[in-house]
Design a protein that fits this description.
Elements: H1 3-16, H2 21-37, H3 49-69, H4 74-77, H5 79-84, H6 88-95, H7 118-139
This protein binds zinc ion.
Length: 140
């Protein structure tokens, strides 16, 4: 699933859960695994994977920047990148032309990674982003 989706879900979880930082961090990393199970469309198998990846990364960075400028606490904002961080191994894999090994369990070949067509896959991810950002705004 896209980094922006993981980022926004991490932000939403951090906005809702009032627990110590490390416990919230574990929750958002667990959410990464669960989100990767959902049927979605990944750009990593496309010809323009790096271009999509940059857009994805910049969207996540812009979201985090807006929240910081709006005064959201660091304890919430940091959960965005923590939630998306496991996708760095997908980035390294794509940059290395599909050579090497992915370390995060939901990226392993044997993991039941969710897939679907481009239209529904993008729509689902945008819906998750919209719901997550609504939670972030309403919770603060
Ligand atoms: Zn992932």
């Amino acid at each position: 699933m896209w980094v922006i989706v993981h980022t926004c879900v991490g932000l939403a979880i951090a906005s809702l859960v009032q627990r110590p930082f490390w416990q919230v961090a574990l929750l958002v990393i667990a959410s990464h695994v669960l989100l990767d199970l959902l049927p979605h469309w990944d750009y990593t198998q496309t010809r323009h994977a790096l271009r999509w990846g940059w857009l994805d990364f910049l969207a996540a960075l812009a979201t985090l920047t807006v929240l910081l400028l709006a005064g959201y606490p660091w304890s919430v904002v940091l959960m965005g990148p923590i939630s998306g961080a496991p996708d760095f191994d997908v980035l390294f894999y794509v940059v290395n032309d599909g050579r090497g090994r992915k370390w995060f369990p939901s990226h392993w070949d044997g993991f039941p990674h969710g897939h679907c067509g481009k239209g529904p896959g993008i729509a689902l991810q945008m819906a998750i982003v919209a719901v997550s950002l609504t939670v972030v705004v309403v919770a603060h």
